[in-house]
Structure formats: C-alpha cells, structure tokens
Amino acid sequence: MERARMLMKLVNLLCLVVLCNAIESPQYAVVHSESDFEVRLYRDSTWMSAPVRQLSFEKATLLGFHRLFQYIQGANLNYSRIAMTAPVVTSLVPGAGPLHSFAYFVNLYLPVKFQADPPTPLPELHLKPFEWDSHCVAVRKFFGFAKDEIVVREAEKLAISLSRSPWANSTSDDSGYAYSIAQYSSPFQFIGRVNEVWVDIEASGIDGCKPSTKNIATS
C-alpha cells in the first residue's frame, strides 16, 4: 500500500512536468556503438543534486525528485522558475551491493540559462549543484518502468557487455558512483518507455573516448 501511494505521488509530480516533452538535455557525442551498448562523450555541465538515503531505488528517486521539483518551481533564493529537463538521473553510491546501499543521488541537468549561475536552493531542500566534467560514459538502453529489480538486472547486463569489450576493467572510480539510471519518459507513457544505465569509464584520448590499450585482453 505504501509503495502504491509513493508511486502515485511520483506520477502526479512527473505529470506536471511531462519528461518526454522536456526541451533541454545534456549534450554528448556518440563515439562508439555496439549491439547492446554505446560509448558517449558528454560535455561539461552543471546539475542540481539531491542526496537520499534509502534502500529502494524507486523510493530514492521519488524522494529526491520531489525536492528537485520544489526547487525548479521556485524554492530557491531567487524565486526563479526553472524549465524541466531530461533525463532524471539517479546515481547509486557503491556499497554492499545495489540493494544494500543506503545512498543515492538524484540529479537534474540545469538549462543552459542557469548553467553558469544556478539559483541557490532553499536550505531545507538539502540540494547542491555540482560540476560534471566532460567524460566518457558507457550506456545501455532498456524499456519499461525502472523498478528496483529491473535496474539491478540491466546494470549487470551492461557490466557483462563491458567485460567482453575493449573497455573491460575501464570503469572509472572518480565519479564515486557504481552506476546511474537515466529516466526519460512520462509516467503516462506505457509503451516504448526509454531508460538507460550509465557507467563512467576511463579512456585514453578523452576527446575520442578511446579504450586504454593496457585494458584490452590478449590471447
């Protein structure tokens, strides 16, 4: 019952902003593509982040987005209204396994208008901006609703794909995240819902996200 109520709250919140119609998203270039994942080079960008301590990915996303939604609706020191962007990205802090970690960060990309000088959130929201430096990300797309058991399974699939690729042993520890889940679709969209698993990777020649030759297995 509690889970149903929380999901309904999330639906109501996201319906107001309609994620699938968001105008702005972080900029990237696809530098490598395979059948089940691709590697992207993301540009420098500024995000607003909500830390959440929860066992459940779904609950963490709901609670973090609720605070971010208040922020973009004017709960900041400038009383600025900020346009919704996509995707909403929930990052898992490494712990004793995905469903045993208590820490998540729910992140929202800031529109270009606010990239250089984001409005300061009200203190009670416990939000903070962070600078996302240009870096490489391995991305696996999946469909449907991003539920706890599904995101774990999809992250494992991406890990397996990377282990069989030139990016084996190239996941980055610099971000502090095990992986992130990016959600793009409106909650009213039941067919063709789009989500992604993101994993930061290290690369030699960052301009092209080329895998480091030292990580390529030899027979």
From TrEMBL:
It comes from the Eukaryota. This is Heme-binding protein 2. It comes from Melia azedarach (Chinaberry tree). The lineage of its organism: Eukaryota, Viridiplantae, Streptophyta, Embryophyta, Tracheophyta.
